[in-house]
C-alpha cells in the first residue's frame, strides 16, 4: 500500500497511502515495486492483510488430454468462479513426478492435471466445489480427488510441490521461464511450445503453473555440453517470441533481472523502453542500484 524508499543520492521518500483508495499524483508505489531494486532501496513496506478463510477445499482433477484441462479451467473462470489457486500440470511434469515419488499413483492414461483450491465461507465453498466438479466432468475428467482438511490437502498439493525437484532427475540443467498469456490463448501457446520442442528433440520440456491467470512455467531441461545449452537457449528465445506474438508477457512473476534483459525489447516498444531508461537515469544517474539488472544497454 505504501513504501519508504531510500534513493541513490541518500534521500528518503514515501509513496502511497494507508487508505484503501488513493489516486493522488503518479502511482510511484507500483513503479518502485516493479523496478527490481533498480530505483531505490525499500526500508519500510506497508501491506494490507486478508483474513484467513473459514473453509478451504482442494480438488485434484485427472484428464486424458491437455485440451480438456485447459477447457475446464476456462469454463470455471467464465462461470464467475474464482478459485484461490488453479494449477495446471502437463504430461512431462506428471512423468517426472512419478519417477521422483513412486508412491504417487497417477493412471497411465492421465495426460494433464488441474489442482484447484476453493476458499471462503463453508456454504459458498461447498457450492463452488460442486459447480467445479460438474464443469470438469462435462469436460471428460477421468477422476476428481477431493481434500477437505489440511492433511488431505497437503497430500494433493505434494503433486505440485514435487515437480521442481523432480525435474533434476530428468536432466542436470534447466531454464525455467514464467511466461503469461491471455487465458483464451493458453492452449495456443502450449501447442506452439510443443511445435518448437519438435525442432529440439534432444531437450526435455515440462509445462506447469497458474492456469487461472494464464501464467505458465516452461522448463527446458538439457544435459551437459555446449551444444545442449545452445539448443536450450535457442528454444527459450523462440518461446518468448511466440509468447509476445499471442499477446503475452515474457515474465508474469520472476522479473527481468540479468538473464531476460536481452529479451526486454521483444515486449517493450523502443519509446516505452527509453522512457523506462530515462526514469532510471533520473533516479540513479550513477547506476549504483542493482547495476546491470533490467536493461542490457
TrEMBL record:
One of its GO terms (molecular function) is oxidoreductase activity. PROSITE patterns: FAD_PCMH. Keywords: FAD, Flavoprotein, Oxidoreductase. SUPFAM superfamilies: FAD-binding/transporter-associated domain-like, FAD-linked oxidases, C-terminal domain. Coiled coil: none annotated. It comes from the Bacteria. Residues 1-52 form the FAD-binding PCMH-type domain. Pfam families: FAD-oxidase_C (PF02913). InterPro entries: FAD-bd_oxidored_4_C (IPR004113), FAD-bd_PCMH (IPR016166), FAD-bd_PCMH-like_sf (IPR036318), FAD-bd_PCMH_sub2 (IPR016169), FAD-linked_Oxase-like_C (IPR016164), FAD-linked_OxidoTrans_Type4 (IPR051914), Vanillyl_alc_oxidase_C-sub2 (IPR016171). Its cofactor is FAD. Belongs to the FAD-binding oxidoreductase/transferase type 4 family. This is Oxidase. It comes from Candidatus Brocadia fulgida.
